[in-house]
C-alpha cells in the first residue's frame, strides 16, 4: 500500500482534516508525512505495525492518562468591555496584559469544560464546548441572559442629583434576572478529550444541579 493511500484512509477513519492532525495520531512530523506522500514504493509491514501501535498508544494516553488537563483554576475575573463595547470579556488582554494574553491564547486553542464561581468560590455555572474554543464559549456564556439565574435587587435612579430617603420613596426589592458578569468572580478551564466532554459536563450539572444556574439538565 502506498503511503498516500494509507494516510488518506487514516484521516478519513479518524475524522481528521490535515496532515498536522494526522502527524499527532501516528507519531510523525507533518514534514515527514509530506515527504512520504511523494516517494516511490509501498509501506512495509513493519511500518504499518508501527503506525498502528503509535495510534493505539495515543488513544490509550488520551483515554486513561491525559483525558483532562487543567489550564487554569479559580482564576480571578477582571471583566472589561470588548473592543466594540458590545459585551463584557472575562479578562483584559491588551498589550500590557502578557499573562492574560497567554491564558487567552491557550484557551483559544482548547476545547473542553469550564466553570464560573461566585465571590465565595462556589460554582454557579458549568459549561462545555466541543466545536468552538473555550475562550469564546466562556465569554458568550458570561454575557448570556439566563432566566433561571435571579436575585432580589432594589432599582435605584441612575440620573438626577436629588436623593429621597426610602421612607419617602419606598422601593420594593424585586427579583430580577442576573447575568453571569454580575456574579461570577473566578473561573476554571480544562482541556478534555473530545469524546469525554459531554459526559463530563453532564456529570457536573447533574451532581451539583441545585448549586448551579444551568437551566438544562444534561443527559449521559
How would you describe this structure in keywords?
220 residues, alpha+beta, 434 Repressor (Amino-terminal Domain), 2 domains, 4-stranded antiparallel β-sheet, two-stranded antiparallel ribbon, 8 helices, 8 strands, 38% helix, 19% strand, elongated
How are the secondary structure elements laid out?
Blueprint: H1 3-13, H2 19-26, H3 30-37, H4 45-65, E1 68-76, E2 80-81, E3 88-89, H5 98-108, E4 112-117, E5 123-129, H6 134-143, E6 150-153, E7 174-177, H7 180-183, E8 186-192, H8 197-207
Antiparallel strand pairs: 1-8, 2-3, 4-5, 4-8, 6-7
Tell me about this structure.
By secondary structure, this protein is α+β, with helices and mostly antiparallel strands. It folds into two domains: 3-65, 434 Repressor (Amino-terminal Domain); 68-156 and 168-207, no CATH class. It is 38% helix and 19% strand. The chain is built from eight helices and eight strands. It has helices at residues 3-13, 19-26, 30-37, 45-65, 98-108, 134-143, 180-183, 197-207; strands at residues 68-76, 80-81, 88-89, 112-117, 123-129, 150-153, 174-177, 186-192. The strands form three sheets. The chain has a four-stranded antiparallel β-sheet, sandwiched between helices. It is elongated and about 90 Å long. The mean pLDDT is 91.
